[in-house]
Design a protein that fits this description.
The complex is a heterodimer. By secondary structure, chain A is α/β, with parallel strands linked by helices. Chain A is about 50% helix and about 15% strand. In chain A, helix 7 (about 115-145) crosses helix 10 (about 185-195). In chain B, helix 5 crosses helix 7 and helix 7 crosses helix 10 (about 175-190). The chains are: A alpha/beta, B alpha/beta. Chains A and B meet through helix 13, helix 14, helix 16 and helix 17 of A and helix 13, helix 14, helix 16 and helix 17 of B.
């Protein structure tokens, strides 16, 4: 049985895997597929990342092979769409009637073809184009894929293209958009493609959808300069990122990160605009894509395969349920705790832990939970917070925590962000700077001055 | 001088909106005419800023409530009558007779609708006059000493009892000469009077509608005040007018203690209490009744709230920025020397605890200096309260949480002080998260 990565809607939305309301999504980034079926296959891959290093690495090998060669999908999307629509119809009554045609029927056909005839005609013509183009493509592809990870699938493809069952179709296949066929041939080809060898035909389409995805992902890797990650056995317990960045951010700055069993927690501090969330998202996205065998936005990336990824970045509170934001946070932590207590090895991101409560509670809760997470050396955590005091206290004990921060440099009263991780803890905050820049306090001071004198 | 407020405030307090569930406009909207509805909306849009006017309107509504008068009027006919008064004015009696005959002929000759429509219009106007005299009859019959509605009631009396209108005996369907007579009376001679009559009826319509709501909900009338000597806001057992069994709270905001610093757990009822204060303050400035045992207030120049700055924390930083801009807007109004009532719920919740702590503290301290304004500021960051304790003009209140076993219960009774409820860790303990990870 194939093992899949445990993910949920919160993680998917935090990492913007699928877009909503026009925002850029990771799926969109890779979705350069030509066919609808390919798009659906790609979505399926995004919905179910793997949790098995052999399968992941095998997948990655195939994508890598396609990223090295410049293929483009041989068949246009209209032909593929027409074929999919054509094969969907399994109704024998939609076959063409031959022989029994009356004179008046023939006359009608001459004047205006009926819908069944148009349907069959379009489908058969699409099949002819498919086989012609595939025949060419397979020949051209042959040398490139021999010895590569795609070879097995390629053999299957060649076998289907050259199958004796499709000899009839191949006979008429031509580069022309329209091949002249008489009704008898048309009906015969229709019978073969749509009924007798239907299973083989569907198999062929399925292989083509896969090919579409491979070509699309390979093309993205090549064009964006993404690299392939390496999945390691689960027990190695290490994440090694070199120059990872966020694929959606223009001019994104890359960072390195290394977490292992001795240091399984990253305690991240930094001001609001310093790029904590973006960094955490880029780390999460790369790991997510890594589990799909996809190329990632990093120079080099090795990861121990995880059982699940849990993030808590843009947690929404459910006020209609009567739950406060803080309660939503606690419930999210609980979900993670349940998984951990079952011995799962996870990757977890908590952004701005416990922002929904008072400082003291947030401090206590952050310390208690961070310490508890230290015992789970098989899992990795990234915890960001503004309560640097919690970090200072944790630093006094020798725990498996790595302390890093994203710095803010002040140029006059304007903050500048380097977005490069540094070791340590920072107390940088921007909230007051914004208030000061807006001149609110001065405004209030000026207003009261006149009054106090008047009193 | 106008009462200043903004869209955000109107939305926070859910004041306007005929089609919004639970809006205050809907609560008081039992009017029977379209004109009344428009007038009610106008009153909601322009609260009064003059104690005398506020108290007078309140007294009128209260008087009508005590008299228990009913307005019996038809919505469509009133609309028709008001539309009728926009028709062209006949130049003199002769021309209205000529017109009536001309239209009658046109009706017979080629079925023109004009004559029939005029008849309907006249009928509508007569019905309105009937409703008005019915209302007047009730007012006179039940009349009590010290009638605050005397001026408008007398105007109504004068218009209805104008001799020519009173002697009008025409009944639908009218003869051609009756039509001509009515056309002349309504559209020429008494045109202005009838326009005024409609306005008076709309006003009575609104007052009676509000009075009915006040009677059915047991609302009372606030006392407005122009003098600087008295308290800014003084309420006893003030409740939310839409909630059926709301729990009341008492508070006095004065020049000596013009800031209420409110704490409490998230579900404990902070926002509801703040909305109650805002709504009541607003209604009181309209001269409308409020849900309380008593309410006195210094007339102010505006209200600003920041209660539902949507709990959309996913907006994150931009949310904080929006909050800062809102505080800036308020700071501008406050520092311009206006007397305002300001309600800030969970200020700066879009940012981290530390920033929110600093910002809330300094903004509260600065605002508190404006003694002619009243402030209610709530937060879950109780540490801010500790640091504000030295400021003499800040009073502290909290909405308590009572733990019954592991389940929190809320009393909704504001208690003096700062909450010590440390729900944060309790919730974590209740969920047994640390045990799971051990």
């Amino acid at each position: 049985m194939v093992k899949y990565l445990t993910i949920d809607d919160q993680t998917i939305s935090d990492l913007a895997i699928f877009g909503k309301s026009g925002k850029a999504s990771v799926y969109d980034l890779y979705n350069k597929t030509i066919t609808q079926g390919g798009g659906a296959k790609l979505e399926e891959l995004f919905r179910h990342p793997l949790s098995d290093e052999y399968l992941i690495n095998a997948k990655a090998e195939i994508f890598k092979c396609f990223s090295l060669q410049e293929y483009s999908f041989p068949i246009d999307s209209e032909t593929m769409g027409a074929l999919a629509y054509y094969l969907e119809n399994e109704d024998v009554r939609s076959q063409l009637q031959i022989g029994s045609q009356s004179f008046s029927q023939k006359f009608k056909d001459m004047v205006a073809a009926d819908s069944d005839q148009v349907f069959v005609h379009d489908g058969v013509q699409a099949s002819l184009r498919l086989f012609y183009k595939l025949g060419e493509f397979v020949k051209q592809m042959e040398s490139g894929v021999r010895g590569s990870a795609y070879e097995a699938s390629f053999d299957k493809l060649v076998e289907l293209v050259n199958a004796s069952e499709f000899a009839g179709v191949r006979q008429y296949a031509s580069s022309k958009f329209e091949v002249k066929l008489n009704t008898i041939v048309l009906s015969e080809l229709d019978k073969q493609v749509r009924f007798e060898y239907r299973e083989k035909m569907l198999e062929l389409l399925d292989l083509l959808y896969d090919l579409d995805v491979f070509i699309a992902v390979g093309q993205v890797a090549r064009k964006r300069g993404f690299h392939f990650s390496k999945a390691m056995p689960k027990d190695s317990g290490a994440l090694n990122y070199k120059q990872v960045y966020h694929p959606h951010v223009e001019g994104a700055i890359a960072n390195d990160l290394y977490l292992n069993k001795e240091h399984n927690i990253l305690f991240l501090t930094g001001a609001n605009m310093a790029g904590k969330s973006t960094l955490m998202k880029s780390i999460g996205v790369a790991l997510y894509l890594g589990h799909m065998g996809f190329p990632v936005a990093a120079e080099h990336f090795e990861f121990a395969v995880r059982d699940g990824i849990f993030t808590s970045i843009n947690l929404a509170d459910n006020l209609s349920m009567g739950a406060s934001h803080y309660y939503a946070e606690v419930l999210r932590v609980k979900e993670v705790a349940v998984e951990l207590s079952q011995g799962k090895q996870l990757f977890v991101i908590f952004d701005e832990m416990f922002r929904g409560t008072n400082v003291k509670d947030a401090y206590d809760a952050t310390i208690a939970l961070t310490k508890a997470f230290c015992n789970k050396t098989g899992s990795q955590f990234i915890i960001s917070t503004h309560i640097m005091e919690a970090g200072e206290l944790l630093q006094k004990e020798s725990l498996s925590i790595k302390y890093q921060y994203l710095p803010t440099e002040m140029k006059g009263s304007i903050p500048v962000y380097t977005r490069i991780l540094k070791d340590g803890i920072t107390a940088d905050r921007q909230g007051m700077i914004i208030i000061q820049n807006e001149g609110i306090l001065e405004m209030l001071d000026a207003g009261i001055k006149g009054k106090e004198e008047a009193l | 001088m106008t009462f200043v407020t903004d869209k955000q405030t109107l939305a926070d307090l859910n004041l306007l909106g005929k089609y919004k569930i639970g809006s205050m406009f809907n609560l008081f909207n039992r009017v029977k005419t379209r004109g009344g509805e428009l007038l009610l909306e106008e009153m909601f849009r322009t609260p009064l800023t003059n104690a005398e006017a506020i108290n007078k309107r309140g007294a009128c509504i209260k008087y009508l409530q005590e008299l228990d008068v009913k307005l019996d009027i038809n919505w469509e006919l009133t609309e028709m009558a008001s539309h009728y008064l926009t028709e062209t004015r006949p130049a003199n009696q002769l021309s209205s007779i000529f017109n009536a005959y001309k239209e009658k002929t046109q009706e017979v000759m080629y079925r023109s609708q004009k004559y029939y429509l005029n008849q309907r219009h006249i009928y509508a106007m007569q019905e309105v006059l009937l409703s008005a005299s019915n209302l007047l009859g009730q007012l006179l019959k039940k009349s009590k000493a010290g009638n605050p509605c005397k001026t408008i009631q007398d105007r109504l009396d004068k218009i209805i009892n104008a001799p020519a209108l009173k002697q009008l005996k025409a009944k639908y369907p009218y003869t051609v000469s009756q039509t001509a007579q009515c056309q002349f009376l309504f559209l020429n001679r008494y045109r202005q009077s009838l326009e005024e009559l409609l306005r008076l009826l709309y006003e009575f319509d609104v007052y009676i509608s509000v009075a009915q709501v006040a009677a059915s909900k047991g609302l009372i009338y606030a006392q407005a005040d122009d003098s600087d000597k008295n308290d800014l806001i003084d309420v006893e057992n003030l409740r939310h007018p839409s909630l059926s069994n709301a729990i009341g709270n008492t508070i006095t905001l004065s020049k000596k203690e013009n800031v209420l610093f409110l704490t409490g757990a998230n579900m404990a009822g902070k926002s509801t209490w703040m909305k109650t204060l805002g709504i009541s303050f607003y209604l009181a400035h309209m001269g409308f009744p409020v849900a309380a045992d008593s309410m006195r207030f210094r007339v102010m120049e505006g209200i600003f709230t920041s209660i539902n700055v949507p709990d959309d924390i996913s907006l994150g930083w931009s949310h904080f920025y929006a909050e800062v801009m809102r505080v800036k807007l308020v700071a501008k109004e406050v520092s311009s020397g206006k007397r305002l009532f300001i309600l800030f719920d969970e200020l700066f919740k879009g940012t981290n605890v530390k920033d929110a702590y600093d910002a809330t503290l300094v903004v509260t301290q600065k605002l508190a200096k404006y003694r002619t304004c009243a402030f209610v500021i709530s937060t879950h960051i109780i540490e801010v309260g500790e640091d504000l304790k030295g400021t003499p003009n800040i009073q502290f209140g909290y909405m308590p949480t009572v733990m019954q076993g592991a389940v929190p219960h809320y009393t909704y009774n504001m208690t003096p002080g700062i909450t010590t409820d440390r729900q944060g860790m309790i919730i974590i303990e209740n969920e047994k998260i640390l045990e799971m990870l051990a």
